[in-house]
């Protein structure tokens, strides 16, 4: 029996889902699944049982997302900081992750799992990768930009989350997707993760819909500003080149346009070459990791 697909929405849930789907829907939701231990304490069950129910809740939440047409979900399952917990808790979480995630993978579902993750680690790693690109001669220092850093993150294949949900009433990001959520709708909900319901998700989507136009505007403005800044930098470079060649910087508009075009085409070529090399480097690292742990 399928773990995710079993069980459909109730008639009332389906009715409300159809209403909400008439508005702008998120394409990608990120969850900080928090509150498993408090749940275990509240229900007087073992801590491991709280974590186990937390994993089960993830499967249920993915089913709701599928039913709502939300095609991408990212979850914070274990942070690097969580290694500081007791050995028995960490071992228990690793066992659960092995068991439950392999079951989720069998169902081919769309899920990004952040495990042994922190955002600052991800960002510093991306910076190191760009420095490596410069060192290898694949990149020019002037290629370094926010948009390149974005492409070096582990999330480079996904759109940034539309909504970030944290359960358990804690109002902090705990080093999760700090870069990717600057224009996301942040929703903090008091419910403990194993008790999360369809209606909690519904409420989060409503909040997103109420803020949608402001968020969209902020995203568009940010994208435009980034383009404008890049163009300004390119124009300054072309001016410098022309002056170095003894030409008048503002003289020939056609020449300036041609130079600008060449500059951005060459950058694009370098960036693509670097990203391909980076992908190979990462695949190689993963393959070596697989061999070492086999
Ligand atoms: C989240 O629940 C799960 C993990 C961090 C692995 P917690 O274990 O943090 O539970 P609380 O927040 O202490 O209740
Ligand atoms: C955040 O929860 C990490 C995960 C949910 C995996 P924590 O419970 O570990 O975070 P803090 O310590 O309360 O910030
Ligand atoms: Mg917690």
From TrEMBL:
Cofactors, names only: Mg(2+)
GO cellular component: dehydrodolichyl diphosphate synthase complex; endoplasmic reticulum membrane
Pfam family membership, one: Prenyltransf
SUPFAM superfamilies given in the database record: Undecaprenyl diphosphate synthase
Ribosomal protein among keywords: no
EC number: 2.5.1.87
Keywords: Endoplasmic reticulum, Lipid metabolism, Magnesium, Membrane, Metal-binding, Transferase
PROSITE patterns: UPP_SYNTHASE
Chief place where the protein resides: endoplasmic reticulum
InterPro entries: UPP_synth-like, UPP_synth-like_CS, UPP_synth-like_sf
Domain of life assignment: Eukaryota
Gene Ontology BP, a term: polyprenol biosynthetic process
Reaction equation(s) it catalyzes: n isopentenyl diphosphate + (2E,6E)-farnesyl diphosphate = a di-trans,poly-cis-polyprenyl diphosphate + n diphosphate
The protein's role, per its UniProt record: With NUS1, forms the dehydrodolichyl diphosphate synthase (DDS) complex, an essential component of the dolichol monophosphate (Dol-P) biosynthetic machinery. Both subunits contribute to enzymatic activity, i.e. condensation of multiple copies of isopentenyl pyrophosphate (IPP) to farnesyl pyrophosphate (FPP) to produce dehydrodolichyl diphosphate (Dedol-PP), a precursor of dolichol phosphate which is utilized as a sugar carrier in protein glycosylation in the endoplasmic reticulum (ER). Synthesizes long-chain polyprenols, mostly of C95 and C100 chain length.
Record-stated family: Belongs to the UPP synthase family.
UniProt-recorded name of the protein: ditrans,polycis-polyprenyl diphosphate synthase [(2E,6E)-farnesyldiphosphate specific]
Organism of derivation: Nomascus leucogenys
Gene: DHDDS
